[in-house]
């Protein structure tokens, strides 16, 4: 194996690997320019780039509203923030584990998944991941559309009824138009590629943070204090009453970034070093998620004093402002925040995942368009309508499936293959990752079986009330069971 790797790839002193000159990758079923290994010379993202990436992705409306579902379930403010912090600290572990191969080998997530699932079997985790991303993309596109709707209304009071005052599908025609405009803006930027994305993230991170901090100061000043939410003791005064709600809530918090815990290679493939990508993520993810959620709690609590009711949705809150200039600035901030997270977190990965199905026919740009179309079909306006349902149904439910995939990937890369991959074979139908005879299906059925067993165990609690605890721990159950089963199956399999 060592001799073969010497012939096909070179490992630099910093641990990053690239193909030797003369190695040809041209199989149209497994390769296109978007899926190709990133050359070492192009791996230029720094610590700041990764910190800015996470700050930009965390500074979004779903994060701002994250505590609302927890407080709505009966937690007080500090219990909600502790839950968010714990969940994000835990999900950081698989994020870093799956970030390593991206920086080392320069490959995107669906190509990395080929090492465990097979060169064609990798489409199973890629599509499962892409479906979830489509849902997330739609949620953020709907939020961005609502921000545009509020902005247009601030400029012209008659805007909401400009295309008729009869709701269509529960919403005015101008709401659908605003949604379509924001959706199109996402697609347009995605078509410009990763370099523009990096620039957008670097600029959006400090801008959104400063503007949100200014909104916190304004809200506390107008309310002459912190408001009622900050003094509410909640419904769980003891550990015994808090724990049954804490566990599924932490699992839901993990679900919030369970998508990125799989596809971080899509970003770390551009990393300058393992240390820089790891430090940037460790510093930015748990802290930003907790701080931004805390800002949402403070502003919402103050809104109770200002407007007589708690307003969790910042788009609705800005709609109460009297100054058109203030509304315009606030809406621009929300649009920037939503745009930066949506493209980075919810479009890059599914675009690559769809491209992985048929690289010859589907480019990154085509994959981005497919993502946008599927996001509309998933009706995101219904997913976001109920904050508590959004936390405990949407996030908790899919975390089990993504946990099962993460378990297989981490077990395979760190414990089976010991971080050593044959880069060229990730793009070959008859290489070591074909997992079968020449001309076969190119699928590692051990990985597929382990994944679906993990999903089954994570979700069975939805159908069998006596096993509800398994669903409450969905991400942990899916990840641990799939990793354990995969390890056993691979140890028993022939090399």
UniProtKB/TrEMBL annotation:
Q: Which family does it belong to?
A: Belongs to the purine-cytosine permease (2.A.39) family.
Q: Which domain of life is it from?
A: Bacteria
Membrane topology is:
Multi-pass membrane protein
Give UniProt keywords alphabetically.
Answer: Membrane, Transmembrane, Transmembrane helix
Q: Which InterPro entries match?
A: NCS1, Pur-cyt_permease, Uracil/uridine/allantoin_perm
* Localization (cell): Membrane
Q: Lineage from the top down?
A: Bacteria, Pseudomonadati, Myxococcota, Myxococcia, Myxococcales
Q: What is this protein called?
A: NCS1 family nucleobase:cation symporter-1
Major place of residence = membrane
Q: Which Gene3D superfamilies match?
A: Hydantoin permease
- Pfam families named among the record's database cross-references: Transp_cyt_pur
**For this UniProt entry, which segments traverse the membrane?**
51-71, 77-97, 117-139, 173-191, 203-220, 240-262, 282-303, 323-345, 366-384, 396-416, 447-467, 473-489
């Amino acid at each position: 194996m060592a001799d073969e790797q010497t012939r096909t790839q070179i490992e630099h002193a910093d641990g990053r690997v690239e193909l030797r000159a003369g190695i040809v990758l041209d199989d149209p079923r497994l390769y296109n320019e978007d899926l190709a290994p990133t050359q070492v010379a192009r791996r230029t993202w720094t610590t700041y780039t990764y910190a800015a990436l996470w700050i930009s992705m965390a500074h979004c409306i779903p994060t701002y509203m994250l505590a609302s579902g927890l407080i709505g379930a009966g937690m007080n403010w500090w219990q909600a923030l502790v839950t968010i912090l714990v969940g994000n600290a835990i999900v950081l572990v698989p994020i870093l584990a799956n970030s390593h191969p991206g920086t080392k080998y320069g490959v995107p997530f669906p190509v990395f998944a080929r090492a465990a699932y097979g060169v064609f079997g990798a489409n199973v985790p890629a599509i499962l991941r892409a479906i979830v991303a489509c849902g997330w993309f739609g949620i953020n596109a709907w939020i961005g559309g609502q921000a545009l709707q509020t902005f247009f209304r601030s400029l012209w009071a008659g805007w909401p009824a400009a295309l008729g005052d009869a709701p269509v599908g529960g919403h005015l025609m101008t709401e659908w138009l605003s949604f379509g405009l924001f959706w199109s803006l996402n697609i347009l930027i995605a078509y410009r590629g990763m370099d523009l994305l990096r620039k957008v993230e670097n600029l959006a991170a400090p801008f959104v943070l400063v503007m949100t901090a200014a909104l916190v100061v304004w809200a506390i000043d107008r309310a002459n204090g912190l408001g009622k939410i900050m003094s509410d003791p909640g419904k769980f005064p003891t550990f015994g009453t808090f724990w049954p709600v804490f566990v599924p809530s932490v699992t839901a918090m993990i679900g919030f970034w369970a998508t990125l815990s799989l596809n971080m290679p899509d970003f770390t493939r551009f990393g300058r070093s393992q240390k820089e990508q790891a430090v940037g993520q460790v510093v930015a993810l748990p802290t930003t998620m907790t701080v931004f959620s805390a800002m949402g709690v403070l502003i919402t609590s103050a809104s109770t004093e200002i407007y007589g009711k708690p307003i969790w949705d910042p788009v609705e809150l800005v709609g109460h402002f009297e100054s058109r200039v203030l509304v315009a600035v606030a809406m621009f901030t929300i649009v920037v925040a939503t745009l930066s997270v949506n493209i980075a977190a919810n479009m890059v990965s599914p675009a690559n995942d769809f491209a992985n199905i048929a690289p010859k026919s589907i480019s990154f740009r085509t994959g981005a368009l497919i993502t946008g179309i599927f996001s509309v079909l998933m009706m995101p306006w219904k997913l976001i309508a109920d904050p508590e349902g959004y936390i405990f149904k949407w996030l908790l439910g899919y975390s089990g499936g993504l946990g099962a995939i993460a378990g297989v990937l981490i077990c395979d890369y760190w414990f089976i293959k010991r971080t050593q991959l044959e880069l060229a074979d990730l793009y070959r139908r008859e290489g070591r990752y074909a997992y079968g005879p020449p001309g076969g299906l190119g699928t590692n059925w051990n990985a597929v079986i382990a994944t679906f067993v993990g999903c089954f165990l994570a979700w069975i609690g939805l159908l069998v009330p006596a096993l509800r605890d398994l669903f409450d721990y969905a991400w942990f159950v899916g990840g641990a069971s799939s990793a354990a089963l995969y390890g056993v199956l691979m140890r028993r399999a022939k090399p």
